[in-house]
Amino acid sequence: MNTIDRDVVIVGAGATGLTAARALVREGHSVIVLEARDRIGGRLWTDSIDGQMFEIGGQWVSPDQTALIDTLAELGLETYSRYREGESVYVSKDGVARRFTGDIFPAGAATEAEITRLISVLDALVAELDLEAPWEHPRATEFDRISYRAWLESQSADAEAIDNIALFVAEAMLTKPAHSFSLLQALLMAASAGSFSNLVDSDFILDKRVVGGLQQVPLVMAEALGDDVVRLSQPVRRLEWSAAGATVASDELTVTAKHVIVAVPPNLYDRIDYVPALPRLRQQMQQHSSLGLVIKVHATYATPFWRAAGLSGTAFSPYQLVHEAYDNTNHGEERGTLVGFVSGERADELFALDPADRKQRILESLATYYGNEALTPAVYYESDWASEEWTRGAYAASFDLGGLTRYGALQLEPVGPIQFGSSDLAAAGYQHVDGAIRVGQRLASTIIEATKG
Fold first, then answer.
1. DSSP secondary structure code for residue 410 in this structure
2. What's the whole-number mean pLDDT along residues 113-126?
């Protein structure tokens, strides 16, 4: 067992941990980053599958994500716009695919008006929310005790409008059924994007991608820090702590430090043996926060055939197995790639099937949007983050009913020399790389200020 000493130990080489490491190293602190995986990036992962580059994890950049945009500029990484020319596709409950342009899909005048009204109501509620402390809203307790689905049903009798407004937060973002989380959690999700209107605007929220993949962000950060700072295949097993500092142990290393940053998703906190144990309320908190479930589907074809048919590639439906899909063709490629998503209870259903049947069901759903050419991709791959030992879900942790008001403020508090943080705990940029960077900057600043003078 190798024993070393550092000012700060960071657990996790994702965007949060590496952002914090960079800031601390710049200020002269000695840092080590211990990463359980054999690769950099956490929930960012760009890989080649059968010769085709896929962004297996996070990938998009939106205009409000200024912390990410500034970081991309600093790292010298280029972006390009997602393809969006042509018509979008919406599939209604009757299974009919309808083309449309604009923001509101073709669901009949009454339903379209109701969707517009509900978006306006949600925008107004989001505007009242303190993004940094949603639990302080005057009606926070009320909003946190009713499920998002139940609240929508109390606001409207239009089933199709409800199904679609639920989709934007539930399957599309939190990757959980809309009955399993609160209205307050839904409002926080929308507030993190600036408004509910932003959240439902795919041209906004899924604006650009990074040339070579978004994993370039942590990869470039880690390269600059060097192998002495960033250590792979070092899952932290034990963390002994006191007011004076901590000792952090992996299978091969023991590190003593004054400060610790645990920069992993909340559902992984208990993979570490804390000595003494974490306070009772923190242990309770971790039992009421969980990641959702999603299958991210990648399908590459000889050409982007949908473009020739006048389609943008944007397609969605709360009634389809693949609830949303987009043109995900890589920069400069002649091949065409679609990316689609299957979330929540529908993902449960598919994981009960054997891989061949699951693939067939997914491709049939894509064909409902794009036609039979979608049935025969040259390369096909399913990202299953729930099976990743050091992730176990997607895209970020959210609380169950009542959890946000009960534990929301607590999740941001340190325990002795230990700080916890990741995109799961972000305000602006929640569950995105932008939020991860913001949290990393905040955690580093806390240590830097505490050690000055």
1. G
2. 97
Task: Supply angle C-alpha 246, 247, 249, rounded to 5.
Answer: 145
DSSP 38: S
Of residues 291, 304, 292, 294, the one with CA closest to residue 335: 304
Give residue 400's Cα distance to chain centre.
17
Beta strand pairing call for 253-257 and 245-249: antiparallel
Which residues does residue 245 pair with via DSSP β-bridges, in sequence order? Answer: 242
Strand partners, 297: 340, 382
Closest CA to 33 of 259, 273, 265: 259
Integer Cα distance of 7 and 109 in angstroms: 62
Contact 131, 427 (CB under 8 A): yes
Query: CA dihedral defined by 166, 170, 172, 173, rounded to 10 degrees?
Result: 130
Q: What percent of the chain has pLDDT over 70?
A: 100
Q: pLDDT by residue (tens digit) across 352-407?
A: 999 999 999 999 999 999 999 999 999 999 999 999 999 999 999 999 999 999 99
Please report, for residues 29, 214, 232, 321, the alpha-carbon distance to residue 33 in angstroms, rounded to integers and kept in the order given: 13, 20, 8, 40
Q: How many Å apart are CA 147 and CA 180, to the nearest integer?
A: 6
* Residue 159 tokens, joined: 């089933």
Asked whether the beta carbons of 122 and 187 are under 8 A apart, the reply is yes
Closest Cα partner for 264 from 36, 38, 23? 36
The answer to whether 99 and 311 have CB atoms below 8 angstroms apart is yes
Is residue 388 classed exposed, middle or buried when 0-12, 13-18 and 19+ CB atoms within 10 A define those classes? Answer: middle
| Arithmetic mean of pLDDT, 279-288 | 96
Extract the tokens encoding 65.
């994500």
Closest to 9 (Cα-Cα) out of 391, 415, 418, 411: 418
Q: End-to-end CA distance of the chain, in Å?
A: 35
User: Identity (one letter) of the amino acid at 71?
Assistant: T
What are the tokens at 231? 């250590």
pLDDT, tens digit, 9 for 90 and up, residues 215-230:
999 999 999 999 999 9
Contact present, 444 and 221 (Cβ < 8 Å):
no
Closest CA to 280 of 121, 407, 144, 388: 407
Q: Which of 181, 307, 272, 255 is CA-nearest to residue 31?
A: 255
Q: For 172, which DSSP code?
A: I
- Please answer whether residues 144 and 184 qualify as being in contact, where contact means their C-beta atoms are separated by less than 8 angstroms: yes
pLDDT band at residue 102, thresholds of 50, 70 and 90? confident
Residue from 70, 72, 69, 47 nearest 57 by CA: 47
